[in-house]
Design a protein that fits this description.
The protein is α/β, with parallel strands linked by helices and about 375 residues long. Helix content is about 40%, strand content about 15%. It binds pyridoxal-5'-phosphate (PLP).
Length: about 375
């Protein structure tokens, strides 16, 4: 740290030097991320609430109302208007809260959870922090959670089953309807991780896409993770956790002696209200139609990309159900495809199960980017 401060303009100049090293979503080069360019309305709303702290909501009753309204809107989107939850930092924190609620409400001594093999790694963190024994259910031929494997894993110690609506690697939707039936019958908590799919499945259904039920309209669903900072176009960090009953928040509430609220259920204490303002503003501004447009466009480009990938002689791992294309080749190992694409300036990522190149067609990816990418994909065969 300097003794004498550096003038403001010089600071910005220095910062720009660092920023130049970063990739931008706008360049269309980021192909393997679930984040995207935040929407300008979300950015403006975020900046308006930079000093608001939802960890001390008595001081910020306006922001608190925004959070309640945002949660209600997200609940409506997820098939139930009266839900209880918070706008938090992302899917990881949401999944952690859900697992904590499920564990606390059960009186089980050695709690176990069942997640699909395709579950996000945040459940490993949750299991570690909460001392849960995590059982991994197999996937079926099309990489969805195999419910017979789930039934085999259920024991007296099972405190939660997790289904994913829009898996991180392949965008697959687990059979939540069947999981709901199983969980109701056995009285087990069901969490749906819709961090990625929550902001697109309902809109795509509106647009006529044939996608399965996955939300609170299924009576067995206890909680849902839905991330505004992915397909919701909100700035990072913005996540959402929704619970069917208030009780789930209550079982993990901690007394807060010096704050304006007496009890707090979130993991984080001091908590930005800016993420809430951005979520609220974008839901109001874009509405169902605006978000439908966003998802529909992504799906059109997804189909276009999937077709092009096959035409270039690569093999799709699965038909895209949401806006993710995963592919491999019988001739070139996946790592080699990835490094060749990287040499040509594309930031791709790898799916682990099965091994594949994974491209998430987020809203920053336009037709001209896909065109340039497919041209390079043809070329790497000769590299
Ligand atoms: C991205 C993702 C997460 C983790 O969310 P973060 O916001 O990165 O913490 C959890 N589950 C699924 C299905 C995801 O796609």
């Amino acid at each position: 740290m300097e003794d004498n401060g550096i003038p403001e303009e010089q600071i910005y100049q220095m910062l720009r030097k660092y920023k130049e090293k970063d990739l931008t979503h706008r360049s269309g080069r980021i192909l393997g991320s679930m984040c995207t360019c935040p929407h300008p309305v979300g950015i403006k709303a975020y900046m308006m609430f930079l000093e608001s702290n939802l960890g001390d909501p008595g001081l910020f009753p306006g922001t608190k109302s925004l959070e309640e309204e945002a949660i209600t809107m997200l609940g409506e989107l997820m098939g139930k208007k009266e839900v209880y939850g918070h706008i938090i930092t992302g899917g990881t924190e949401a999944n952690l809260m859900a697992m904590r609620a499920a564990r606390n409400i059960s009186k089980v001594r050695d709690p176990e959870i069942i997640v699909p093999k395709s579950a996000h790694f945040s459940f490993k963190k949750a299991a570690d922090m909460l001392k849960l024994d995590m059982k991994m259910a197999d996937l079926d031929d099309d990489y969805r959670m195999d419910t017979s494997s789930v039934e085999d894993l259920i024991s007296d110690n099972t405190v939660a089953i997790v289904g994913v609506a829009g898996t991180t690697e392949l965008g697959k939707i687990d059979p939540i309807e069947e999981l709901s039936r199983i969980c109701l019958e056995k009285d087990i908590y069901l969490h749906v991780d819709a961090a990625f799919g929550g902001y697109s499945i309902p809109f795509l259904k509106d647009a006529g896409y044939d996608l399965p039920e996955f939300d609170f309209s299924l009576p067995g669903v206890s909680s849902i993770t839905i991330d505004p900072h992915k397909m919701g176009l909100a700035p990072i960090p913005t996540g959402g956790i929704l619970f069917r009953e208030r009780e789930y928040l209550e079982v993990m509430a901690i007394e807060t002696p010096y704050l304006t609220e007496d009890l707090q259920s979130t993991v984080v204490g001091t908590r930005t209200g800016a993420a809430t303002a951005a979520t609220w503003a974008l839901l109001k501004h874009l509405g169902r139609e605006g978000y439908q447009e966003v998802s529909r466009k992504c799906m059109e480009i997804t189909s276009h990309l999937a077709e092009g990938v096959e035409k270039a002689g690569f093999e799709l791992v699965t038909r895209p159900e949401l806006n993710i294309v995963a592919f491999r080749s019988s001739q070139i190992p996946v790592e080699e495809i990835a490094s060749k694409l990287e040499n040509r300036g594309w930031a791709v990522s790898l799916a682990s199960y099965p091994q594949a190149i994974r491209i998430i067609v987020m809203p920053h990816l336009k037709r001209e980017h896909v065109k340039a990418f497919l041209a390079d994909l043809e070329l790497i065969k000769e590299d």
